[in-house]
Amino acid sequence: MSESVSDTATRQAPSVDKSQYLLAAALFAVGVYTIVDARGLNVGFGDPVGPRVFPYLIGAGMIVLAVLLAIATARGDVAQAEAGEDIDLTTPPDWLTVGKLVGILVLNLLLVNFLGWAISGALLFAGSAWALGSRTPLRDVLVGAVLAVGGWYFFYALGVPLTPGILDGIL
Amino acid sequence: MDTLNLLADGLQSAFTLENLAYAAIGVLLGTFVGVLPGIGPAMAVALLLPITYGLDVTQSMIIFAGIYYGGMYGGSTTSILLNTPGESASVMTAIEGNKMAKRGRAAQALATAAIGSFIAGTIGTLLVAFFTPTLANQAVKIGAPSYFAIMLLAMVLVSSVLGASRLRGFIGLFMGLTIGLVGLDLSTGQARLTGGSLELADGIGIVVVAVGVFAVGEALWTAAHLRRMPVDVIPVGRPFMGRDDWRRSWGPWLRGTALGFPFGAVPAGGAETPTFLSYITERKLAGRRGDSDEFGQGAIEGVAGPEAANNASAAGMFVPLLALGLPVTATASILLAALTSYGIVPGPTLMTDQPDLVWTLLASLLIGNTLLLVINLPLAPLWARLLRIPRPQLYAGILFFASLGAYSVNQDPFDLALLLAFGLLGFAIRRFGIPVLPLILGVILGPLMEVKLREALDLSGGEISGLFNEPLAILCYLLIVVVLVAPAVLRRFRTPDEAIPEKEAVR
Q1: Could you tell me the sign of the dihedral formed by the alpha carbons of A96, A102, A108, A110, in that order?
Q2: pTM to 2 decimals?
Q3: Which segments in chain B show pLDDT lower than 70?
Q4: Is the domain of A66 the same as that of A104?
Q5: Which of B26, B132, B140, B298 makes an SS bond possible with B99, Cβ 3.0 to 4.6 Å?
Q6: Cross-chain residue pair A55–B433, CB shorter than 8 Å
Q7: Which residues in chain B are contacts of A129 at CB distance < 8 A?
């Protein structure tokens, strides 16, 4: 994943965006899976359309698009990555930060039922801030705790008690 | 004058102290979230959806109206004070707005944006109130074949007209359609694309998809490319306008409204095109008056026009949503999902089944719009401070609230896993330049389309001609052919290089 994401930098040079082949392959696989999955459906009597037709159309369309994308990529088509307020496309992507964030989100979904939202939510906030380069861990934990406990009581007031987890009876 | 009476009734039922409080909460929350960099109106509505869980449908509609207009207004504040528009609709505002702010006229830029939004939003909402009943009366007569064709037309338009690459538009659309397939088939009850998972049998909620793709995807994408330099926020006092500013603003406000509303009401119109057209119009008119020099250095007309166009198109989107049940923007899709969660079926029958609700919604849009002006003009300096929130905490907060919203629906960690999966998809589509709107529309329109397709073909006994037996349907198919073929034909007559120089030059 060393290629430049910036479109302006690569627009002049006719380089091939290799990871777009990856996307095309993934789309192709999804299209094939959609069709294979639909083949297993039963069509009832007296049902002229049945549950298969629509998935067939979508799967077939997806396969065609995947092939078109592969062809366009080979011809030098380059993706125009999305810009934004806090986004600097001139630097290479920072995979370490993305990996940390994904890890923290996974940790949250594994732990939320055991620890309860009030604790796992606080960890989610503090952890994400840390991953994104915050240098005030203590403050982040405090802010996270206030947000998470506040969120818990907010939904409690709405009549939707979130999992209390190990804090059951304390909140 | 039936419409006026109905609207007055709606105003009456919306005008309780409690409901006004809800409207104020909606406006404040919407602006708060909308001002935050990286959050547009669609994401604001999706993120704030869970706060309405305990409320009844009228109150949540009132809050939504506030959030929607608040989110839009917040976006213009960001583009004027930061010069980095969070959404394509604010690009034109940023051009002159930020120049004005740099010349020390931030207060006037914010004021003309706020008042212009108010005027355009009010006129737009009134137009919705007048047009929607008529359209809904006609829409009741539309049969399944035409419905199918209209939805197909909307999808083709959204995928091919917006964005730089039609191929990527359609890829986004088909991603959405595939996501929409997941779950039990409506008429036979067989599971499709669930991989045997029981949790997927109910299908994937549009809110999880939207929050995942918009919020989590945005956070992950920003994390990969975070700008490490501190942003430059222009300080601002209380917004106000001088006599001269009023004189120069009212024309652009009205012209922007006239441009914006029709574009908002048709699929793929959106706010991008009318804001651009409004900007061009104002620049041309200034040139005719002989004072075009100011354009490019902070002309107030260049803020007033596009902002009005933006809000008028935001109001226009309610026409197809309420009359046809057809969402044409990402925000409309999420509002549609919110309505469906209350057991309300949007579509031509909505006006006759739930007239109170529709008129209360329209009345709350008017109230929300007014509150926006009253609350936000004095609060502008406060909102400007929000732009200084350190980025790590800002995006950590987005991830926190996205997870909270997804988790609170069923209290199932599986939803958090889905959220992450759609976050990664959101990252991928940003990396590969695939537009979000066709994807969201695919998720919400796909299942509706299948219902209409099967209805139409059931009636004709499976004959494919059952899709073409209504004039409206045939008209739609003709339009689809034109949309798909026209660009290829046009390309033969002029080279792409000279086709878009003006748009490029303005950016």
Answers
A1: negative
A2: 0.86
A3: 1, 38, 84-87, 162, 229-232, 268-269, 292, 346, 494-507
A4: no
A5: B298
A6: no
A7: 392-393, 396
